[in-house]
Amino acid sequence: MSREPVAVVGIGQTHHAAARRDVSIAGLVREAALRALEDAALTWADIEAVVIGKAPDFFEGVMTPELYLAEALGAAGKPLTRVHTAGSVGGSTALVAADLVAARVHRTVLTVAFEKQSESNAMWGLSLPVPFQQPLLAGAGGFFAPHVRAYIRRTGAPSSTGTLVAYKDRRNALKNPYAHLHEHGITLEKVRSSPMLWDPVRYSETCPSSDGACAMVLTDRTGAARAPAPPAWLHGGAMRSEPTLFAGKDFVSPRAGRDCAADVYRQAGITDPRREIDAVEMYVPFSWYEPMWLENLGFAAEGDGWKLTEAGVTELDGALPVNPSGGVLSTNPIGASGMLRFAEAALQVRGRAGEHQVPDARRALGHAYGGGAQFFSMWLVAGSPPVT
Amino acid sequence: MTPPRDVAVVAYARTDHQGPAEGLSEAEALLPVLHDALAQAGLAPGEADFTCSGSSDYLAGRPFSFTLTLDAVGAWPPIAESHVEMDGAWALYEAWVKILTGRADTALVYAHGKPSAGDPRDVLTRTLDPYYVAPLWPEPASLAALQARALADAGHTGEPPGPTPGPPAVTDGAAAVVLAAGDAARRMCARPAWIRGADHRVEPHALGLRDLTDSPSTRLAAERAGAFRAPVDTAELHAPFAAQEAVLRRALRLDDTVTVNPSGDAAADPLMVTGLIRLGEAAARIHRGASDRALAHATSGPCLQHNLVAVLEGDA
């Protein structure tokens, strides 16, 4: 059966900060949504449905906040859906919204993701109470550092790789006016000498806690034809999940991630991602996840991901720029971080990424993951519409 | 809209006890329900093309509570899966849309709720406007009493409201549904419950901006779902408080010929699962030939803020 092609015609994000005390939660999501509507030259009345996502409600202390946000999102009288798939949620939310257009249930949909981490304490919000996990496993760093060590042991990657990723992403963020961290004096030495938090993850190799939101307007071919600026077209999108813990689970390169990428590439007709994809926005909350995901997503052979990073391939002017926006390492409103990856991929193929634009980016991948490296969502967008 | 594809509810199962499920984790409560629904459809764990669930971290009292229930699903090899932080009725809606895109022919939908982990009277106040309303900690029954008062004042209920209606029953549980398209549905079920339409609409959150005696979102969702194109013989309504049923009956234009909630009192079902149970019970009634055209309704938020309506039909 035929699916309606899905176009991204509006993209908006907030300025991100450790604490956006100048806005309420409603004000935060509205800031992103209004920028997306302005980009698409549309008004609230043009939106038929709203799909919103965020990570655990404990991060703000508001249960099912979409109910309270209905009016701020112009959703009164419309369908409003709330997605929560852990850290991958920003990506999943965009995909749920895209399905509404693809199935021709709605023509134009607003999708929003946010986190206002300053309302609460995300580290403890992330930590399950005893007896559901050990008392010293608080926060995400303690959970993921052992898997990074496993990667290093497995591949023999030099300790410089993690530092290089952080140095690159933080410099890319200097070109992104919306990024949370703008570390103007950053040097490789500063990253290398920053405090060790969870061996081998240093302070400067760790994502910040951010307040922020991202929004996109998705529409059908008719809507795309009316758009004032070139749209990004969805060529492939998928989600994959696997359990948190089980005998034989590969935390370094989870099969759910590999399967999800394979599904997206199949939908988009990609056979050689390294050559056919021009820019990647991947979810790298700790610097070492860049080489790990390069392998998981098929950009490098198993064990070779770190070699791309070391060779400068993933730099903004490299052959495969990774996280030109500065990535999660520079901006992390958790629930929105996945949508920011998806949105930045779309900005690249629309040629609207400003100073961090990758020249002639025709195809870009947006990637998000969450939970215990178990939930994955990805989309591949291009500047030209899919062949139907 | 008329759906571009025939999709049906082909299997349904739920936990059948009342009250807290002492000593059972959500995954443990869910496992037999999933087993039952999948067996009805003849599907192995992980075999459905798409899986979608609904639940709330706040009820469980821990973040990412839904991740642990994946253990009951059999998500290995990895599965295409999504989750809404809403009643499972909305998970069913997401799965229905997924099948409409053609990216899936079958879907497993489930919901779980363990409100006994806390006190829902307190917990549910956290869903209210965090700046102006939640600090007052108004429990659901107090808000429902405002609605009952408004209904009495408007003459929609025969008598003035009595004492504050009781709090929702604290029942833990789970439910699961299997959806399938076209021929797959016919293979799995002798009399599939075809989803002829489904839609949901939300209203403003602030009670002061709403007419609590009416439910325009329910009416609009019903219109969009095609509920008014032909009479239904059955309606499964999700009214957490008794007075709300009158609001829904009027919005849905249900007269005395319609059998309402033959499955029992929706207020006694587990939070986050109740809406999915309404859809499942309506479908099951069609499966066994007791209904030909049924309406199922789910609600969310204070005083019927957000409403979903689906219309299900059996083949003649």
Q: Can you offer a commentary on this structure?
A:
- The complex is a heterodimer of chains A (388) and B (316).
- Chain A is of the alpha/beta class and 388 residues long.
- Chain A has a domain at 7-121 and 209-226: Thiolase/Chalcone synthase (Peroxisomal Thiolase, Chain A, domain 1, 3-Layer(aba) Sandwich), CATH 3.40.47.
- In chain A, 34% of the residues lie in helices and 18% in strands.
- The longest helix of chain A is centred in the middle third of the chain and has 17 residues, at 139-155.
- Chain A starts with 6 loop residues before the first strand and ends in a 6-residue tail after the last strand.
- The mean pLDDT of chain A is 95.
- With 316 residues, chain B is of the alpha/beta class.
- Chain B contains ten helices and ten strands.
- The longest helix of chain B has 16 residues, at 26-41.
- At the A-B interface, strand 3, helix 2, strand 8 and helix 8 of A face helix 3, strand 3, helix 4, strand 6 and helix 8 of B.
List the helices and strands and how they pair.
The complex is a heterodimer of chains A (388) and B (316).
Chain A: E1 7-13, H1 25-40, E2 49-53, E3 80-83, H2 89-102, E4 108-116, H3 122-126, H4 139-155, H5 160-173, H6 188-192, E5 196-198, E6 201-202, E7 211-219, H7 221-226, E8 232-241, H8 255-268, H9 273-276, E9 279-281, H10 289-296, H11 305-310, H12 327-330, H13 334-350, E10 363-370, E11 375-382
Helix pairs in contact in A: 2-13
Chain B: E1 7-14, H1 26-41, E2 50-54, H2 57-60, H3 65-73, E3 81-84, H4 88-101, E4 106-113, H5 120-123, H6 140-153, E5 173-181, H7 182-188, E6 193-202, H8 216-224, E7 234-236, H9 242-251, E8 259-260, H10 274-287, E9 293-300, E10 306-313
Parallel strand pairs in B: 2-3, 2-4, 7-8, 7-9
Antiparallel strand pairs in B: 1-5, 1-6, 4-5, 6-10, 9-10
Helix pairs in contact in B: 1-3, 4-10
